[in-house]
Amino acid sequence: MKIVIAPDSFKESLSAQQVCESVRTGMARVWPAAEFICVPVADGGEGTVQALVDATQGQRIETQVTGPLGDPVQAFYGLLGDLPGDEQTAVIEMAQASGLHWVPPEQRDPKLTTSYGTGQLILHALNHHARRLIIGLGGSATNDGGAGMLAALGVRFFNDDKEITRPAGQDLVTLTHIDISGLDPRLQSCEIQIACDVDNPLCGEYGASTIFGPQKGASEADVRLLENGLLKFGRLTEEMTGKMVINTPGSGAAGGMGAALTGYTNATLKPGVEIVTTTVRLAEHLADADLVITGEGRIDHQTVHGKTPAGVAAIAKQQHLPVIALAGCLGEGYQAVYECGIDAIFTILPGAMALPQALATAADNLTDTAENVARLWQLANSKSRF
């Protein structure tokens, strides 16, 4: 029997690799001779670097970069291992360098934050000979249109008086000129994939400032300022590059980082789970499988919108495979996942408990649940009669 285990992480408790190991341990109690294929997966958000490093036997690279408030922070990215071809692949989570978690709640102000550190991560990866980049957008503290990131990669920004060396959101409204002559030339020969699960444009009613600015601490007045800044940045970008970014779906992701990457590089935007499952060659691993196990910490009505269990199920159903999902908890509307190829869902909690206890016992609870799933599967497929 061949069982493919392809889950996301259980946030705050288990990495995707640890989930795989717990599930395998539980099922092996019932099927000790089974073939277990562990494929850690993610959807482009938090945990994507670790999942891809684990899935490809890659390495995690740690380095100090500039945080969103200008202070040094310790961040990491991944260099992937077991992949076809000769090109070194780096996977970067923007939030590692420029995430909202680096900014205390009382200091959150997207007028002041910069994505400069994300550019430093990209530069570090290029210096490690990466020629393919996977960049996960999400969880950012910034609304600078990715200008900070571009500055770290050699682009120069000017207003009437001086050069702006580390642009933040409030600086964009004063921009008069963008000089791209110093942009790192290695980017032009890179394949860059942006893991992006939103289709917001850079500006307008559904743009970065209006929709995401308040979540990062922007007041109504701040939103107007930031909107005007992104509009100025977008117009200058379109003049300099000839690429349309202001109204392009996805350009407003991560405070406009989508616009910077698609405007100044050859990057393409794709759903995060699609990028990850393709990179780890999930479809190949599923060949001749008898059962697929996926899951994440919470399954609800949002799971069908680009989350890992739905992405795994979609690929599994192309091969007509049964899919069971395991979850820490179920939220409102979780039944929607039955329409996207998940055949059954099991929660791992054995009873009511406080969140700290649930997080602390997640591995054991997951192992026990996986054993019970295997026992139920074996019973359902038994030819014996009672």
Automatic annotation (TrEMBL):
Offer one Pfam family short name for this entry: Gly_kinase
The record's annotation in SUPFAM superfamilies points to: Glycerate kinase I
- EC number(s)? 2.7.1.31
Gene Ontology molecular-function annotations: glycerate kinase activity
- Going by the entry's taxonomy, the superkingdom of the source organism is recorded as Bacteria
Which keywords are on file for this protein? Kinase, Transferase
**NCBIfam families, per database record:** glycerate kinase
Q: Which PANTHER family does the entry mention?
A: GLYCERATE KINASE
The protein's name in its UniProt record? Glycerate kinase
Q: Which organism is it from?
A: Vibrio quintilis
Gene responsible for this protein: glxK
